[in-house]
Amino acid sequence: MPELPEVERARKLAERVLVGKRIRKVTTANDVIVYQGVLPCRFAMALKGCRVEAICRRGKYLWFALDRRPWPLFHFGMTGSFQVYTAIRDRPRFFKVELLMEDGTRLAMPNVRRLGRIGLRKDPESQPPVSKLGFDPLLDMPTPQMFAAMMAKRKTPIKALLLNQSFAAGVGNWIADEVLYQAHIAPHRRACDLRVDEAKRLASCLRRIVRKAVAVNADKERFPKTWLFHDRWGKNRNAKTVHGEKIIHETIAGRTTAWVPSVQR
DNA sequence: CTCAGTGTTCAGTG
DNA sequence: TCACTGAACACTGA
What pLDDT score was predicted for residue A238? Predict the structure, then answer.
């Protein structure tokens, strides 16, 4: 579930069902991997009885502003999400936490592969890991000129830089590939080797793609038909094409990268 | 049975 | 110290 648009969708869901209400009960799974630096029972104690005032997001991190500190901080890893329901029998498998609100609404975070993280912070925004994040393309997007200046200082492949959360918070594998495809830039090129016009084009593609994905609430069916996204995976990978151009798959920056050599230079 | 995957961290290197 | 790389983490489904 988890790149910026999917996390923003979860933020809006939580905002709709939690804000203005008190947490009546907290149920936790006994998972020492997902709970970081806090025992599940301590986490539950911190939240119980609090009123939720706001749901905040930066990059792929989410946290709740409560009427008492510390506040809960969430990261979905590769498989986390928020789910809302009222009947306890609808509680998802592999849930790590479930909040029961005073009006009977329940919100749970399931996390099958346990790469997600749940913690407590006095002030999440000013403490790691949130404080170490780079710009968020939805909240903080630098101007194309500033973006080009940032590129000029980095020697790493552009794909690796886009995935670096201390550079661009919230960008994950599919967004990075989509942005490079639409900007016509090959993923292995070093960031500092991009021309200024290329760097500016990359900035505007990043901004546009993230805003569009958020505008359709991260619903893949509603992504524009022209996006690489729809063709990048699939069973017969080797035979995949976009608009008749061949897609290839290779490992760059430790991640499988789908790109189109005839379009990206 | 093997391996990749919408991710992050950290040890090791230069 | 900084920038960067690659392995480790966990576990399901193809």
Answer: 67
